[in-house]
Amino acid sequence: MHSIEHYRNEFISYLGSKTETKEPVNLYEPITYILGLGGKRLRPVLVLMATEIFGTDYKKALDAALAIEVFHNFSLVHDDIMDDAPLRRGKETVHEKWDINTGILSGDAMLIKAYQLFENYGGDTFRDLAKLFSKTAIEVCEGQQYDVDFETRDDVTQAEYLKMIEYKTAVLVAAALKMGAIVANASLEDQNGIYEFGKNLGIAFQLQDDYLDAFGDPKTFGKQVGGDIIENKKTILYLMALKLGSIEQQSELLDLYSIQPQDPKDKVKAIKDVFIATGSAKQTKLEIQHFTQKAFKVLDHLKISEDKKVLLRKFGESLMQRSV
Fold this sequence. Notes:
This protein is mainly alpha-helical. The chain contains 15 helices and two strands. The protein has helices at residues 4-18, 25-35, 42-53, 62-83, 94-97, 100-117, 123-150, 158-183, 188-215, 227-230, 236-244, 247-257, 265-277, 280-299, 306-320, and strands at residues 87-88, 91-92. The longest helix has 28 residues, at 123-150.
């Protein structure tokens, strides 16, 4: 087995060799641009790592890894259009740098390119990869729609929120791991097991993101701390506070979410105080721990060596201990 950094560097090198700006330039240049903005490359790394965990050379999975990274970035291009976001990873978003029509068309081309990459696999591997990818892609779209719907709803439940983040975020992490298992021709039981590991870890990862958005260190957190609060996003912290808080605390929270002051600092502080006072902050940390442990329990049933299980646990722990 190799280090995470090794897989990441190998993938970035492969990405560079496969990315070119050809004619028509206005279609392909935005694709080169968004793929070159960096990021953690978490999903392709998971594809490569899972392939080796199940006893196959990770290089055989490079096209599957590239497919999932292209798809992920396609979804970001379209999400940024929907959110009218000006920045992505500190740089102009595609629709801002070019225009909305370019963002839509280049995004569409990325989705098709992602499917094309599976053509490099034969027989059952191609079929299983394409089938998983199609299922995952539609779930990501469903998750995005749930997220949009929740913006105008005041009755979102915790169960609904967990389903939304499962579809919008976690299934892509799960699919990345299962793709590696498919390329490695692992048993169906192990394919489904590594998928469940990834899904639960992905949910924990998003809950951690919600928590860090409110309580992360501004020096290390990659985004504006309190950004979700400023945008009145109903994250797990908000839903927990409404569930656990007194009538007075619920009323205060609803009032704070209904205002948009010129300087949001006081609003952010007041809402964070409510999250702490209601026990929402503490309970959210327990939920993160719950889904992380749920992921780790799956590892007991995987037919892989103990040292590989340790590697997956360490990877999961590193995700949950992050401050960015």
